[in-house]
Amino acid sequence: MCESCVYYKYDDEEEYYFCECELDQDEYYKFLTGSDFDCPYFRLDDEYAVVRHQI
After folding, report:
1. Which helix (H) or strand (E) holds 17?
2. 3 state SS of 5
3. Which helix (H) or strand (E) holds 19?
4. Which of 11, 21, 27, 47 could be cross-linked to 41 through a Cys-Cys bond (beta carbons 3.0 to 4.6 Å apart)?
5. Cα distance between residue 33 and residue 17, in whole Å
6. Which band of pLDDT confidence, cut at 50, 70 and 90, is reported for residue 15?
C-alpha cells in the first residue's frame, strides 16, 4: 500500500524508502511492523492527475 502513496519517498543519500508524514508513535510502530496498518494520510500517487487537470 505505501509503495503507491504520494508521501512514500526514496532518500538517495541513505538509500532507503521512508514516509514523509508525521505519524504518531502507535501509527509509526504499525508502519514499521506492517501489521494491519491503515494510514489516515494515504493519498494515491496519481502521476497523471496534473495532465487531466490541464485538459
Report:
1. strand 16-19
2. strand
3. strand 16-19
4. 21
5. 15
6. very high
Q: Specify whether the CB–CB gap between 5 and 44 falls below 8 A.
A: yes
b/e burial code for range 29-47 (CB count within 10 A of at least 16 → b): eebeeeeebebeebeeeee
Residues 32, 17: contact at Cβ < 8 Å?
A: no
Residue 32 dihedral angles phi and psi, to the nearest 5° = -70, -40
What is the structure's pLDDT at 34?
73
Q: What is the DSSP letter of 42?
A: -
Q: Tell me the sheet residues that pair with 19.
A: 8
What's CA 3's distance to the chain center, in Å? 7
Residue 52 cell numbers, joined: 487531466
Which amino acid appears at position 2 of this protein? C
Report, as an integer, the average pLDDT of 14-36.
84
